[in-house]
């Protein structure tokens, strides 16, 4: 039997609980990586990525937003800033990591990726591993890396899904968007990737809850029937004109109209992500940023 006073035992228990909670987002000091992708373009990924970053930032998490859209990187514009440098300046060695990172607000840094990700493919292994080393410096600055992975059913989608700890697929209720979302799940070989975490689903621009649940159910049922696994439905974001208005003003809708219906939906989704992570704090373990970028570059450009 323990000869420690009861209070001491209880204090120890409390400390352990607090510590376990703290580790949910920062396991062994490694930030989690969350990739946002879609089949069809224009479904709201970039706005969702930024709004999630804000919602996590409000929970005191340090977030790095990586603009990994290889085609049309535009997170800087949506955040109301203008990126002078991007990953390609880091790759060519003309700028340091700190020089390309753009502060968006207290807990959010933007890392413009763009063409830099593509250029990483042409580096030799030594240069590449130096870049990975540099990028892993982000681990000191972040609890969470959210990346906007762009749209499309191509091998990039697989690379992002395999590199990230959590993958979130965004669709709208439009039939073409639903079909392309299913196409992405199929191209990933189902909703459980072999190395990555489970695939999660957000229905954006829903007219109401019922419609969102119907869309999610259709995608989940088709996936289950034909692919043997279904994405986890994270939640929905209502169609909300505040988003379009904020985009036009180059403001973050989540900040411009925090009490909007869409912002409330984003908060619910954030809580759901945290709940799911807390339910399984150990598996899958965050892979760390060095491994993340290595997987991503290999998956995107190097494996034929
Ligand atoms: N919940 C919503 N309600 C109303 N409009 C929305 C909503 N979400 C996004 N939008 C509109 O859709 C447009 C496209 O959003 P966004 O740029 O985030 O999509 P995307 O998926 O990142 O596009 P792309 O594939 O081109 O990168 C926005 O400009 C905004 O006007
Ligand atoms: Mg986008």
Structural class by helix and strand composition:
alpha/beta
CATH topology: Rossmann fold
Q: How many β-strands, per DSSP?
A: 9
SSE string = HEEHEHHHEEHHEHEHEHEHHHH
Mean pLDDT: 86
- Distance separating the two termini: 61 Å
Listed once per kind, the bound small molecules are:
adenosine-5'-triphosphate, magnesium ion
- How many alpha or pi helices? 14
CATH class: Alpha Beta
Offer a quick outline of the entry:
With 304 residues, the protein is α/β, with parallel strands linked by helices.
Description:
By secondary structure, the chain is of the alpha/beta class. The protein has a single domain (28-302), classed as P-loop containing nucleotide triphosphate hydrolases (Rossmann fold). The protein is built from 14 helices and nine strands. The chain has helices at residues 6-25, 45-58, 75-78, 87-92, 97-100, 115-120, 125-135, 155-163, 175-187, 209-227, 241-248, 253-256, 261-279, 289-302, and strands at 26-27, 30-38, 63-67, 102-105, 108-112, 144-151, 166-171, 199-206, 232-238. Strands 1, 2, 3, 4, 5, 6, 7, 8 and 9 form a nine-stranded mixed beta sheet that branches. α7 crosses α14 and α8 runs antiparallel to α14 (289-302). The chain is globular. The mean pLDDT is 86. Bound molecules: adenosine-5'-triphosphate (ATP) and magnesium ion (MG). Residues 45-46, 69, 74, 148 line the site of magnesium ion.
SSE diagram, text form:
Layout: H1 6-25, E1 26-27, E2 30-38, H2 45-58, E3 63-67, H3 75-78, H4 87-92, H5 97-100, E4 102-105, E5 108-112, H6 115-120, H7 125-135, E6 144-151, H8 155-163, E7 166-171, H9 175-187, E8 199-206, H10 209-227, E9 232-238, H11 241-248, H12 253-256, H13 261-279, H14 289-302
Parallel strand pairs: 2-6, 2-7, 3-5, 3-6, 7-8, 8-9
Antiparallel strand pairs: 1-2, 4-5
Helix pairs in contact: 2-13, 7-14, 8-14, 9-10
Adenosine-5'-triphosphate (ATP) binds next to α2, β8 and α11.
